[in-house]
Design goal:
globular; single chain; 231 residues
């Protein structure tokens, strides 16, 4: 019979990897652009969280028509942040000839939508929470610049991991006085309009989606810009 001390060590040795797996299981972030035009994603961690590694700047610009597709790995441990897709962007390369020795894309200097004060659709994600909880949403609090859906993959059957977001192009019916100068639909006074057409979004700071979620340990969170009818 093992001593009580040896038994305790054995129990801890078994449970510790289980706890680590529960909270820190690897999760990927995939971005896919189905818009007919390129987008310039911007991934911003919340205060106190690290940036998502993207050593080759693969997510800096995604071509349209489904060609723009990139998968990144969330850092280990709890992570929370937001993802937006900017449109109509230009960079220093548009004005100056890039150096022949430069392999990095030039920094974006301006965009038509996706940056304040222009309207922007925001995907909000958190991963590796307590028990491996992942939370995600699409916010229209800052307006709408393109349709966005978040879809988890690689989770156990029976867990509440629905696709959430807005697959509707709200620009089409956006009231004239709410339209942005370069596209998009302002959030001011449009909460009811947004929520009626996209119930699985958040249109106020206290709003929640019509579809409940409790997603544990998804292997991937996929954010699709301009999703088709399959979403």
């Amino acid at each position: 019979m093992p001593t009580s001390k040896a038994f305790l060590i054995l129990v801890l040795a078994v449970l510790t990897p289980m706890a680590a797996t529960s909270q820190d299981a690897a999760t990927n972030l995939t971005l896919h652009n189905l818009c007919a035009y390129p987008v310039w994603p911007l991934i911003t961690p919340n205060i106190g969280f690290p940036a998502i590694p993207d050593p080759n700047d693969a997510a800096s610009r995604l071509d349209g028509g489904g060609e723009g597709l990139v998968t990144l790995s969330f850092p280990s441990g709890t992570w929370s942040g937001r993802v937006v897709a900017r449109t109509g962007c230009s960079s220093s390369d548009d004005y100056d000839s890039p150096s022949p020795s430069s392999s990095s894309p030039a920094a974006v200097t301006r965009c038509d939508t996706g940056v304040p004060p222009a309207p922007v659709t925001v995907a909000q994600v958190s991963v590796h929470g307590s028990g491996g909880l992942a939370e995600y949403s699409v916010s229209l609090v800052d307006g709408f610049n393109l349709p966005v859906m978040v879809t988890p993959h690689g989770f156990e059957q029976g867990r509440q991991c629905p696709s959430l977001g807005c697959a509707v192009d709200l620009d089409v019916d956006c009231p004239r006085d709410a339209r942005g100068p370069a596209g998009g639909c302002s959030a001011q006074g449009q909460g009811h309009f947004f929520k009626e057409r996209c119930p699985d979004t958040r249109t106020t700071p206290t709003d929640v989606e019509a579809t409940p979620q409790r997603c544990i340990q998804p292997g991937e969170l996929k954010i699709v810009f301009c999703p088709d009818s399959s979403y």
